[in-house]
């Protein structure tokens, strides 16, 4: 998987921040031996990936998971069985 540092840098992100914050970030990047862009991306991109992954996950308690499995294991109702056996009009071959 490619990282932000390996991908082409063809987009910009401009931020407004206090001068003191900019100076702090510049110093931190310097102490890390990198430039400001690589320093910020190295911190922000993993955090963004984590936040997106967490937002996409569904977390269930053990009890809720067991309830979910019970629903999946139930036999189909007659209505659902009929629906499963129905071929929609968009699934029929054209003549």
From TrEMBL:
Keywords assigned: Toxin-antitoxin system
Organism: Acidipropionibacterium acidipropionici (strain ATCC 4875 / DSM 20272 / JCM 6432 / NBRC 12425 / NCIMB 8070 / 4) (Propionibacterium acidipropionici)
InterPro entries tied to this protein: Ribbon_hlx_hlx, TacA_1-like
Source superkingdom: Bacteria
Family: Belongs to the TacA antitoxin family.
One record GO biological process: regulation of DNA-templated transcription
Protein name: DUF1778 domain-containing protein
Gene3D superfamilies noted in UniProt: Single helix bin
């Amino acid at each position: 998987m490619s990282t932000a540092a390996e991908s082409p840098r063809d987009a910009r992100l401009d931020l407004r921040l206090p001068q003191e914050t900019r100076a702090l970030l510049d110093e931190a990047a310097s102490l890390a031996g990198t430039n400001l862009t690589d320093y910020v991306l190295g911190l922000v991109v993993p955090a963004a990936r984590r936040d997106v992954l967490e937002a996409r996950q569904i977390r269930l308690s053990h009890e809720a998971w067991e309830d979910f499995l019970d629903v999946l294991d139930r036999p189909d109702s007659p209505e659902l069985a009929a629906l499963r056996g129905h071929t929609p009009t968009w699934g029929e071959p054209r003549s």
